[in-house]
Design goal:
Layout (H helix, E strand, L loop, with lengths): L4 E4 L2 E4 L3 H7 L8 E7 L2 E7 L7 H11 L4
Antiparallel strand pairs: 1-2, 3-4
Length: about 70
Amino acid sequence: MQVTIEDWDGDGAIRIPDEVLQELGVDVGDILYVIEEYVGNVRCLVLSKTPRIPDRTDELIDHWNRSGGE
């Protein structure tokens, strides 16, 4: 979804439509993080409920650690 950066008392602001908030499962007062990620070779800003999007390698290491490394 494309959003527009708006002027809010001299500062940039992003208005997030209600349908996007509902899809994310968040509401007014919840914390969202803006994370810089690459989709292919394009730099994007991503909204996330966690401060960091786990790398696939992190997921594999976690799985390896849980299974005892066997």
